[in-house]
């Protein structure tokens, strides 16, 4: 999309000759087509199909959501369809008013934007407004970009037209302000968004009140806010409240703040060892405090320099500013790293760096951020987000289409600014500040996939150069368009007061762009265009001002990333090389990410080599020893987790590469291995300051107790001594008289008998296996094995645990059986536990284990055929079972029968769980409270690829 800004022909004299003039010279934007064709509506260019959306909780089989006959383009994935239908369609479920087509959803939003743009004078003519509508529709339809979730929730409905996901509040040193903080935060949580604030104005516990008493200090008031967040979360939604609490490093209570969550983590461990349910979402986790917020320390350059030199640092009274205490800066910094090692909090925010890039310092300092740390601006403000799908701009020849990307950014940033014209806000102070400064947060997703597809390692100079160039271009075009908008509809209200500072920051961005070192044709082209855009934008903005105080951030893109079918979120690398793909008609298959074969092609491999390498990755989940893959190319396929995971400093270096080109900051947590030391965390935090980041948080694997299914072992030698409370299981013996059944079986010609005894109230309690001649070694071993299993069952070990361990064991005798439900067995134990599962486990648990009766298997295949009938994306199950598709993807069923990683095929339900099984250890990620599956990281939050839910502020 290109455009010209019309100059008012009616105006006369000097004002009419200006490129952008005053109010009497403004006429509006003229918009030219890029993606669309005149006379053809975007909806008429794609094929549409009807789908049924049925989302279940795999743990208990309950239906979370159901809507049948929804209409989507045939190229949208099942996952994107499910998430958009369940989360974004409006109207009461089952009613005629319920939206049932993607057309309705896009029209509801786009037409609202076009109407507001027309009413507020953004377009030169109705024809330009129509082109704008068609271009926006085409891009949303083809998953080129997406607005943040509140837009889809609210715009065009009878609800308040809230478009922002990110909020910053403020609190002063008065009880009225503190209580108002609780209220405002609660309103934001109730609406499903998150907020952050800085508590440093509140007097410390070492200062006196005017009445003569001692102040409570900010940490004490954090308890009330935490309880409020927890209550509203549990009452209004199922997900964890998203909030950020910041305290300045020179606050006298800083040490208490630093250790707040670490001390609670110690408490969690003691309660866990005493038998309480302390998992995230567990029944007893609410008994500990401060669990609903992310904590960050605001460190200054003075403090970091004191750390570097090993000198003292002064803590200052809040009311007078005088130093009331000195502390050892290095020791305090060590406490931050120690606390982060223990519980991942606090993160750091680098205050002087943040405010050095502040466009509006005359209107106030930047003191806080939103919960995910990407939005940083004035107190009592908000930011609406939108993200572009970078992979949509990668041409077939491997070059990045910088020109089209720039035109897409123009369109998106224009729409984002229009939204502020009609947006509603949770509080009046937030509304006032946002309308005065018009903060926007354009960003992107799929950077990790783009880098891999172009043959760049994430942790490489070439990868960082391309990422920096793209980010610079995005922000340059955004500010250039913002300057053009200022010439059409006026600059933001606070611009006049901050004009000099705003222009200074624009020049800083442009200067940083010149420092990008290029390595590839892609880098050169992108940076060259960015250079021209910065020059053009500064020229226009110096004359007209800018419409927006800020333009860009890098958000987590959790739910909207799924909506756009992105492989990677925000700035993140690929999570893993394989993932789950849902199939039309139900079921799923394990596939190798599409970026992998594109990367191999970019690196010069032939089709036969690519097929062999992709097939190897499908079976093993990594590239080590892949046939024909050169070791020097391994790094291109490094991921966030797995056999070759990116080093922590690799993540920090990528953040540092793009930070100079963002108005705000980056939502990202640097994951560190469980073996990471406090000293290594110190180094990460220190390098974050040195490299010019605005914020940084780390997460050390298994540092938190409150994580579901986290089974990593902890090094007790490195932890503080803890009180150990030993609890022993109790054996539940079978009664003298109990029901039992005996089954005769044959496996590979070997005959035997299985007798299973049950508790009267149901449930297997013992087994006896007769195999081999009485007195033989085999018979004795089977007797001992039977007793061992029986005692385990009576001590409460679930049958499904034994089934998962012994099914698929392979040894002789093996082969055909005489059981119609288990036709083949890889060993006697494989047969025995499959038979026990069929007799004693409910269908839902057997389905998780991949064990079905003959009738159930037949019905399942028939249902799958029926479900896919008439669908363009229907799946030939027999073909899937017998072949590997063109991208090297293997169906789950095939992997089971072939013996390739049977556990992942049988037990995993998301990509995270698949990676857990490949690595042999649990991932520190919460379970989705909506559908029960394991979430995966998305920036500093988590996102569920099953239903699209997020743990942050979306």
TrEMBL record:
Entry keyword set: Cobalamin, Cobalt, Disulfide bond, DNA synthesis, Nucleotide-binding, Oxidoreductase
Cytoplasm keyword on record: no
Span of the signal peptide: none
Requisite cofactors: adenosylcob(III)alamin
Residues of the Ribonucleotide reductase class II vitamin B12-dependent N-terminal domain: 53-143
Molecular function per GO: cobalamin binding; cobalt ion binding; nucleotide binding; ribonucleoside-diphosphate reductase activity, thioredoxin disulfide as acceptor
Ranges where the record places region Disordered: 1-24, 882-910
Ribonucleotide reductase large subunit C-terminal domain location: 164-699
EC number: 1.17.4.1
Any Pfam family matching the protein: Ribonuc_red_2_N
The TSCPD domain, residue ranges: 735-839
GO aspect biological process, one term: DNA biosynthetic process
Reactions that this protein is recorded to catalyse: a 2'-deoxyribonucleoside 5'-diphosphate + [thioredoxin]-disulfide + H2O = a ribonucleoside 5'-diphosphate + [thioredoxin]-dithiol
EC supergroup of this enzyme: oxidoreductase
Family: Belongs to the ribonucleoside diphosphate reductase class-2 family.
Role, per record: Catalyzes the reduction of ribonucleotides to deoxyribonucleotides. May function to provide a pool of deoxyribonucleotide precursors for DNA repair during oxygen limitation and/or for immediate growth after restoration of oxygen.
Name of protein: Vitamin B12-dependent ribonucleotide reductase
Species name: Prauserella muralis
């Amino acid at each position: 999309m290109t455009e010209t800004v019309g100059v008012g022909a009616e105006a006369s004299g000097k004002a009419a000759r200006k490129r952008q003039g005053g109010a009497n010279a403004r006429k509006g934007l003229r918009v030219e087509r890029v993606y669309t064709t005149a006379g053809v509506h975007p909806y008429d260019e794609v094929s549409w199909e009807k789908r049924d959306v049925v989302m279940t909780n795999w743990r208990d089989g309950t239906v979370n959501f159901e809507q049948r006959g929804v209409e989507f383009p045939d190229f949208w994935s099942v996952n994107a369809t499910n998430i958009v239908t369940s989360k974004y369609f409006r109207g009461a479920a089952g009613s005629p008013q319920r939206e049932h087509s993607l057309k309705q959803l896009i029209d509801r939003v786009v037409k609202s934007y076009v109407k507001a743009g027309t009413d507020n004078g953004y377009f030169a003519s109705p024809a330009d407004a129509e082109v704008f509508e068609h271009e926006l529709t085409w891009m949303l339809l083809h998953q080129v970009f997406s607005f943040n979730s509140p837009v889809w929730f609210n715009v065009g409905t009878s609800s308040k037209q809230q478009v922002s996901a990110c909020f910053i509040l403020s609190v002063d040193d008065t009880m009225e302000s503190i209580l108002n903080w609780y209220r405002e935060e609660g309103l934001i949580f109730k609406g499903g968004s998150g907020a952050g604030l800085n508590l440093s104005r509140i007097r410390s516990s070492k200062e006196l009140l005017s009445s003569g008493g001692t102040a409570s200090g900010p940490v004490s008031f954090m308890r009330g806010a935490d309880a409020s967040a927890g209550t509203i979360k549990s009452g209004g939604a199922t997900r964890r409240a998203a909030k950020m609490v910041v305290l300045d490093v020179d606050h006298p209570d800083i040490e208490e703040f630093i250790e707040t969550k670490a001390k609670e983590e110690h408490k969690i461990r003691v309660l866990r060892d005493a038998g309480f349910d302390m998992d995230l979402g567990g029944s007893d986790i609410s008994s500990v405090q401060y669990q609903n917020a992310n904590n960050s320390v605001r460190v200054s350059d003075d403090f970091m320099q004191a750390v570097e030199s090993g000198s003292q640092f002064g803590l200052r009274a809040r009311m007078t500013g005088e130093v009331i205490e000195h502390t050892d800066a290095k020791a305090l910094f060590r406490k931050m790293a120690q606390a982060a090692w223990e519980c991942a909090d606090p993160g750091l925010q680098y205050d002087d760096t943040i405010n050095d890039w502040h466009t509006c310092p005359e209107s106030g300092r930047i003191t806080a951020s939103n919960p995910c740390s990407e939005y940083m601006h004035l107190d009592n403000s908000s930011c609406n987000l939108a993200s572009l799908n970078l992979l949509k701009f990668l041409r077939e020849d491997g070059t990045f289409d910088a020109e089209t990307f720039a035109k897409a950014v123009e369109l998106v940033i224009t729409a984002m600014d229009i939204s502020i014209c009609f947006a509603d806000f949770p509080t009046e102070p937030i509304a006032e500040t946002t309308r005065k400064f018009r903060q926007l947060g354009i960003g992107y997703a799929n950077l990790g996939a783009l880098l891999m597809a172009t043959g760049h390692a994430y942790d490489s100079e070439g990868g960082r150069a391309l990422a920096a160039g793209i980010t610079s271009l995005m922000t340059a075009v955004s500010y250039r368009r913002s300057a053009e908008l200022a010439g059409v509809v006026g600059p933001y209200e606070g611009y006049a007061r901050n004009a000099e500072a705003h222009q200074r920051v624009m020049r800083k961005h442009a200067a940083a762009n010149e420092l990008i070192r290029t390595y590839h044709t892609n880098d050169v082209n992108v940076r060259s265009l960015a250079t021209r855009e910065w020059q053009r934008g500064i020229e226009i903005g110096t004359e007209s001002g800018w419409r927006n105080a800020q333009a860009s951030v890098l958000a987590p893109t959790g739910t909207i990333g799924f909506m756009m079918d992105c492989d990677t979120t925000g700035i993140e690398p690929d999570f893993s090389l394989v993932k789950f793909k849902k199939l039309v008609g139900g079921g799923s298959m394990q596939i190798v990410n599409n970026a992998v074969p594109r990367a191999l092609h970019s690196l010069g491999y032939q089709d036969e080599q690519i097929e062999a390498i992709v097939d190897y990755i499908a079976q093993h989940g990594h590239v080590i020893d892949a046939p024909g893959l050169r070791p020097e190319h391994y790094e291109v396929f490094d991921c966030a987790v797995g056999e070759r995971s990116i080093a922590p400093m690799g993540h920090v270096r990528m953040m540092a590469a793009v930070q100079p080109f963002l108005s705000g900051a980056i939502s990202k947590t640097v994951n560190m291995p469980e073996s990471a030391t406090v000293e290594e965390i110190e180094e990460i935090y220190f390098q974050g300051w040195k490299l010019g980041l605005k914020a940084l948080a780390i997460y050390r694997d298994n540092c938190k107790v409150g994580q579901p299914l986290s089974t990593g072992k902890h090094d007790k030698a490195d932890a503080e001594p803890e009180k150990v409370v030993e609890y022993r299981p109790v054996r539940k013996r079978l009664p003298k008289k109990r029901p039992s059944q005996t089954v005769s079986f044959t496996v590979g010609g070997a005959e035997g008998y299985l007798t299973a005894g049950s508790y009267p109230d149901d449930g297997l309690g013992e087994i006896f296996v007769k195999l081999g001649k009485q007195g033989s070694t085999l018979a004795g071993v089977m007797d001992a094995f039977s007793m061992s299993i029986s005692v385990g069952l009576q001590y409460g070990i679930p049958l499904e645990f034994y089934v998962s361990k012994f099914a698929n064991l392979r040894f002789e005798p093996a082969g055909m059986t005489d059981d119609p439900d288990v036709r083949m067995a890889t060993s006697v134990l494989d047969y025995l536990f499959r038979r026990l599962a069929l007799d004693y486990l409910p269908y839902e648990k057997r389905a998780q284990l991949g064990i079905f009766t003959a009738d159930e298997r037949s019905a399942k295949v028939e249902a799958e055929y029926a479900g896919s009938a008439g669908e363009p994306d229907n799946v030939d199950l027999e073909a899937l079972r017998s072949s590997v598709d063109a991208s090297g993807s293997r169906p789950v069923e095939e992997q089971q029968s072939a013996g390739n990683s049977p556990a992942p095929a049988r037990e995993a339900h998301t990509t995270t769980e698949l990676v857990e099984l490949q690595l042999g250890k649990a991932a520190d990620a919460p379970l989705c409270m909506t559908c029960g599956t394991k979430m995966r990281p998305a920036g500093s939050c988590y996102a569920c690829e099953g239903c699209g839910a997020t743990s942050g502020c979306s």
